[in-house]
Design goal:
The protein has about 50 residues and is mainly alpha-helical. Helix content is about 75%, strand content about 0%.
C-alpha cells in the first residue's frame, strides 16, 4: 500500500508529507537568524558612527 501511495505522489508531483512541527522549527530558525542579522547590523552601525 505504501508503494502505491509513493507512486501516486511521484506521478502527481505532490511532495512527501513532512513530520508534524516542521514548520514551527523552520520558523524559529529563521526568526533567530533574522534577530542575529539585526544585532550584527546594529553593532556595525554603532562601530561605524559611534552611535548607540
Amino acid at each position: 500500500m505504501a508503494s502505491i501511495r509513493a507512486l501516486v505522489r511521484r506521478l502527481t508531483g505532490q511532495p512527501d508529507p513532512v513530520p508534524p512541527g516542521t514548520g514551527q522549527r523552520i520558523q524559529a530558525r529563521e526568526q533567530a537568524a533574522a534577530r542575529l542579522r539585526l544585532l550584527q547590523s546594529n553593532q556595525a552601525r554603532e562601530s561605524r558612527w559611534g552611535v548607540r
